[in-house]
C-alpha cells in the first residue's frame, strides 16, 4: 500500500488509516465552515499518534472522518484497505464494529449495563459468542478485574475511561480512536489512562490515534500531527533523545506558535 | 438483553406508558365483553318453540287472521309437529308497570309456561299475569289498551313478567299475526320440519330455527341494543386511539431524550435495524406487562359498565355479561399491537440517529417534519373536516360517533402537522414574551421554539383532552338545541297546548276523547311495493276530515316516498294494512313537507280506516288550540296523559334522548381526561427531569430557584394554552360541521353550542396537572443540589 508518511523512523510501514484530500464543510453559502481542508494524512500500524492543534483546528472532525463516524464532503478515507465512501450506512456500521474501537471524552458507557456487559456489547451486537474468560482477560489488562459487575454510576471517571478502552479492545480492532480521552480527568488518572494506551501499543501492537489538547498527553505518542485551520501544519516525532518532559515542552511551543499564527 | 436491561434500569420512564396501556386494554376488554353479551338473543318467550314462522317485521306485512289460520292448519299436518300457535299480540299495559304487550293464553305454551296457581283466563274480562309484577291472584287490575283503560280480573299467575288474555279477546284485539310458533314432538327432526314449513310459507315469510330466532326480539330492544353497540364501539375506538397516542408520544419523547445513548450504541456498532429492534423490544416488554394487567382489570370493570348501560337503557332486557377468557386474550393482544404501533415511528427515528449524536450537547431538533408527516397530516385533517360536515342528523348516537371520529382524525392530523403548526403558533404567542423585561419571557420563548418535539409532546395530550371534551359536549349541546328548535317549530305551528302520554307509549282513544278538541294523528304503518320491487313498511298517519278530508278508499303520500314508490295522483295502488288485509286505494295527493306539517312524513289515511285495520294504533300527541293547559290537564289526568305548552313538549323530547346518552358521554369525557392526564403528567415529568442541566446553567448564571420555577411554570402554561387553543379549534370544526348539517336538515339556523362549564373544568384540570408535573420535579431537582453541578 502506498504510504503517505513515507519511510519514517520506523522503516517500511503499513498504514491502517489513510485520508486523501479529505475536506469537511458544514453549512452552505457564506455560512459555510471548512472544518477540514484537503487533508492528506496516514496512520501507521502499531503506532501511537496524537492529533493536536488550537481549538477549532479540525482535530475532532479529522478523527470522526477517519473513524467512519462522519463522511467527508470531498476526498476519500481508506480504513483497513476499504474506501469508506463505497459502503452503505449498514456496511459501514459492520466495518466499524469489527475493525475500529472508540473512546470519547465522556459519555462512553451505557448506564444501564455493568462494566462487563458494556465491554461485551460490540461482540453481542455482532452476534458473536463472548467467552467470559476473554472478558476477564481484557478487564485485567485495564486493571479493573474486581469491578466487572459495577455500573458506570459506581465507577470513577478514570475507571469509566478504562472500561471504555477495554470495550474498544475486545474486538481486537485494527485501530483505536480516542477523542480527548483524558479531557475530563485529573493529572494522576490521566497518566494511568495514557499509560494504558501506551502499553497496548507497545505490548500488543495496537494502533492508537488520539486527539488531545494536552501537550503532556501528546508526549506519550510516537508521532504528533499538528492541525491548524483544518490543514496539516507539521509533525513531531518522538526521538529517543529528549525525554517525555522535553517532548511535552516542544509540543506546547509548537501549539502556541500555531495559535499565534491563527490570531494573525 | 439490551432491551430488558434498559427496561429494568429505567422503568421509571415507562410508568406512564404502562398505566395508559393497562387502562386502555382494560377498557377494550370490558367493552368487548359487554358487546358480546349485548348481541341479539332468542327471546325467552319462544324458548319452547324450536321452529318459528315469522312474517318479517318491517320488510313484509303480517299475516291476516284468515291467512294465519290456514297456514297454522297446514303446519299442524307436518310430521313431527306437536302443536302450532299463531301469536296474537297487542298493546296492553297494566297501569303502573312498563309491560306493554299482552298475548292470548295459547302463546304461553310457546314459552313453555303454564299456570303456577289459579286458572287459565277464559272470558273477556279475565287475565293471567306474571308473578314478578307484584299483583295478587283474584284482584282487579286496570289495563290500558288502544281503546282506553279497562278493568280485568286476575284469574291465574304465571312465571315472569308477561300478561295473558283469553284467546278470543286476543284474536279480536290483535291487528295481525307476525309470529307462528311450532312445538315439536320429542325426537322430531328439526331440519325436516324446517324445510316442510318453508315449502308451505314460501315467500310470505321466513322460517327461523335455533339462534335465527333472535330476529324475533322486539323492535324497542333492537333499537336500544344498536344504540348501545354504536356507543360501545366508539368508546373502544377512543380507548385504542388515546392509547396509541400516549404510547407514541411517550416513545417519541424517550427517543429524543436518549439520543446521546442511542448515538453511542450506533458508534459501538449497532446497525440502524438493531436499534429499531431494541425499541420494539422495549415496547413489547412494557406492552406485555401492561396488557396482562389491563386484561385482568376488565374483570371488576365489566359489571360496572353493564350496570351503567342498563340504567341508560342501552342494552336489551335480561342482559347479563359473563367473563369470556378469549375476549380478555383478544384485548391483551390488541394492547400489544397498540404498543408496537405506538413505537413504530419512534423506532424509525431512533434508527436514524447518527453515531455523532453521542458527542453532541444541545438538543436541537433538525427536520422534525418528514414527507410522510405532511401527507398523512393533511389527509387526516381533511378526513376530519369531511366527517364533521358530512354527519347527517340521524339520531343522537350516530351523530356522536361521527363527531368523535371526526375529532380523532383532526387530532391525529394536527399532531402530525404539529412541528409546523406549533412553532408558528409559538412564535405568535412568543412575540409579546420577547418584549417583556427580564429573562423569563426570553427563556420561555427560546426554549419552546428550540425543543419543538418537547413542546409538541406536551401540547398534544392537552389538545386531545380539550378537543374530545369540547367535541362530545358540544355535539350534545348543539344537538339538543336542534331537536328543541325542531320540536318547537313543529308544535307552534299547530296549537297552543300539547297533550302527551305519561308513562305509556302513546295516547289511547279514551284519552284523545277526553281532550275534547284539537288534532292528533293515529300512528300506524302500511306495507307497499317500492319501485325497486321490494316491499317495505311506510309510516301511516290517520287524520280526521277536519285536517284533511279523504274518502275511505283514498290515500295521500309524502313527496319523498312518492318518488321511490312511483305513485302519482290518481293512481290506483295496492297496500297491505297492519292487520294483513290487502286493499286497493286511489292516490289523492302528494304532500309537501312545507305544505302541512300534520301530513308530513309518510302516508296519510282517514282516521277510521287506520283504526279499523290497526286495533293497536296509538296517538303520539294531541295539539289543542284555544284552550288553557290547566283546563285540558284536568280532563286528561286520570287517563295517563299530561298537557303542556310547546316549549315543554320540545324539551321533553330532547330530555328523553339526552338522558339516554348523558351517562355514557360523561364516561367518555372522563375517560379521555384520565388518559391525557397521564400523558401530560408523564411527558412533563420526563421532560423536566431531563432539563436538570439547563436549570443548573440557569442557576449558575444567577437565577434564584424561584425564578427557575417561574420559567418552568410559565412555559408549562403557555404550552398548555397552545394545546387547549388547538383542541378548541378542532372542536369548532367538528361541532361546526354538525351544526351545519343540522341546519340543512331542519331548515332553521342551528347555532354552534359549546358546553362552557365542562370545558372550563377540563382546561383547569389540564393546567393544574401541567404545572404540578413541571414545577414540582424542577424544584425537587434543584433542592437536591444536583442543579449546580453542570456535568
Explained architecture:
The complex is a heterodimer of chains A (264) and B (791). With 264 residues, chain A is of the alpha/beta class. Chain A has helices spanning 59-67, 89-99, 115-125, 132-141, 157-170, 187-204, 215-218, 244-263, and strands at 15-26, 33-44, 48-52, 74-79, 82-83, 100-103, 175-179, 208-211, 223-228, 231-237. Chain A contains eight helices and ten strands. Chain A has a six-stranded mixed β-sheet, sandwiched between helices. In chain A, strand 1 and strand 2 (33-44) form a beta hairpin. In chain A, helix 4 (132-141) packs across helix 5. The N and C termini of chain A lie far apart (39 Å). With 791 residues, chain B is of the alpha+beta class. The longest helix of chain B has 45 residues, at 646-690. The two termini of chain B are 29 Å apart. Mean pLDDT of chain B is 81; it is low at 787-791. The chains are: A alpha/beta (264), B alpha+beta (791). At the A-B interface, helix 2 and helix 3 of A face helix 1, helix 7 and helix 8 of B.
For this entry, give a set of tags:
heterodimer; A: 264 residues; alpha/beta; six-stranded mixed beta sheet; four-stranded antiparallel beta sheet; 8 helices; 37% helix; 24% strand; globular; B: 791 residues; alpha+beta; seven-stranded mixed beta sheet; six-stranded mixed barrel; elongated; disordered C terminus
